[in-house]
Amino acid sequence: MAVMMQAFYWDAPIQEKKEGEWWNHIAEKVEDLGKAGVNALWLPPVSKASDNRSNGYDPYDYFDLGDYDQKGGTKTLYGNRAELEALIAKAHANNIGLYADMVINHNSGADEEETNPLDGQKRWTKFKPKSGRFPRDWNCFHPSRYEEFMIEGENYAGFPHLCHRNPLVYAAMYDYARMLIEELGFDGFRFDFVKGFGAWMIGRLAKYRYVKDGAEFTPYVVGEYWSGTEDIDAWLEHVNQLTDNQIAAFDFPLRYKLKDVCDTPNYDLRNLTDGGAVVMKRPLHAATFVDNHDMGDNVIVNDKMMAYSFIMVHEGYPCIFWYDYYNNGLARPGTPNGIDALIKAHDKYAGGDSEILHADPDLYIMQRVGWKDEKAEQAGLIYVLNNLGDKWSGTSVKTKWPNQKFAPIAWDGHDTALPDERTTDGEGNAEFPAPPRGFAIYAPV
Q: Which residues form the Glycosyl hydrolase family 13 catalytic domain (predicted)?
């Protein structure tokens, strides 16, 4: 019963003429987002990068949140610390948490080039941040006296690669994480490029006993491991041995399947059932998504609501992309055809196990069986995905509900006419259709 939003896209403040004002811009939206049912916002990197117009994935001064005149200006691309704190306070007042983007693999924008005595190579590794916190030199990067050969992870874009085994670096990462949680009030972390460093570092930062509002606090933690299912599964297995199964990963394999659903003609919907996604094997550790800031020319172009409908009714922690919600106009508030309607369906009905009732090349039908306890319940639903482009399609399936009436609660496609209500027979059978190149969600009433 949770939906996060990635509250930015690449160069968002520049594209929307909100340079240095992005925190304020998000703050203007949080009341409506809270009412829509969004429970958390993933924010871009908050620290000063190698340039004050950078998106933040090339960090320079971790402890300058937009208050020191360096790297081209005082504010970051997104704002300053006071504006960030105001955003966090307003989000919390609207029951929305905040996840900080952690870029701890590499740095950029060094003040001096220096020679690393271990290999004789010159690199830009002398950092003199104006915050006065975490000054560093070659020994904070690979190769270092603490780890001459980088035995864990991959290098990123030729940037200096931090050596976390150096106690100075290790301590700085803890200071940074504590600042985000304990001083600023963040509720979790999204770790960037986790291929680039040892899983043990995330494990340590995740399991630190943070204190927030006078009590111990455990953050939500999700990693960006951009790879296939087996690689992500191996990383999750390793990192969660360190964290009592605390850490999730973004489900890139599912995302690429969903792009094929939307953009590849005649894609076989049975591919959605083959288990080749994080959410299929590890639903509690899957953060599902449709697009993000890194997709560039690989964004989904056609019928994107089909992809959103899938992640919003299945297990996992779905993440909505700001650009889709606002710039592409897919929120569609007040209608049954947009992301807002899917959030409501997710929150009220998408509970219990997923059970596939039918799958063929052009039609996929699934039920969520629902659950309840003394405090809450989610009633369950029937989900239909139709890959045919020219007609409504459905088939009779055996549900868990005998003699039950169902009403459509969300739908979209190349025909947005209201689907008919359905009633199962004494054995739970009924036909459930969906619009062409679209979906329909039915809930028991």
A: 2-346
pLDDT of res. 405 = 98
- Contact by Cβ (8 Å): 177, 208: yes
Query: Helices 339-348 and 304-313 sit at what angle, rounded to 10 degrees?
Result: 10
| Residue that is written with structure tokens 């069986």 in the block | 369
| Whole-number pLDDT of residue 100 | 98
Residues flagged as binding site for Ca(2+): 105, 362
pLDDT tens digits, 160-174? 999 999 999 999 999
Global confidence as pTM: 0.96
Considering the domain architecture, whether residues 67 and 187 belong to the same structural domain is answered as: yes
Q: How far apart are CA 344 and CA 341, in angstroms?
A: 5
Q: Domain range spanning residue 416? A: 354-444
d(CA 3, CA 287): 10
At residue 260, the pLDDT reads: 98
Binding-site residue numbers are 105, 362
Final residue before a domain boundary, out of 206, 235, 250: 250
The whole-number average pLDDT for the span 320-331 is 98
How far apart, in Å, do the first and last CA atoms of the chain sit?
Answer: 20
Tell me if 369 sits within 8 A of 444, measured CB to CB: no
CATH of the domain at 218: 3.20.20.80
Burial of 133 (0-12, 13-18, 19+ CB in 10 A): middle
Which residues carry out catalysis? 192, 224
